Amino acid sequence: MDSGRDRGGPRRAVGWTGSVVYEVGRTPVAVDPTLLNILACPEDKGPLLLVDDTVLYNPRLRRAYPIENGIPVLLIDEAVSVGDAEHEDYVARGVPGWTQD
């Protein structure tokens, strides 16, 4: 495993597909943490949760933005409204980006 900690960055390893997989805490993510830290909801400009490298989720508006072929689709018209059960699931599994603190 190539550790980014020696250079002050997040831990990372090259996955079997050749893509770089980053570890945020103990959760491996395929989205670069630096990118996750700057992405914001196009509607309310707030932080998003990364859920299973397939969705960026805004828990305040309960809107899910798809990630297609590793590219976040942050278009308001492409967002999907989320019900109560899915909201709880996304919040429990989501990896936070930046915070407003």
From TrEMBL:
Domain of life, per lineage: Bacteria
Pfam family, one: Trm112p
UniProt cross-references to InterPro entries, sorted A to Z: Trm112-like
Cellular component terms (Gene Ontology): cytosol
HAMAP family: UPF0434
Family: Belongs to the UPF0434 family.
Identification of the protein by name: UPF0434 protein NCTC10994_00274
Organism field: Rhodococcus coprophilus
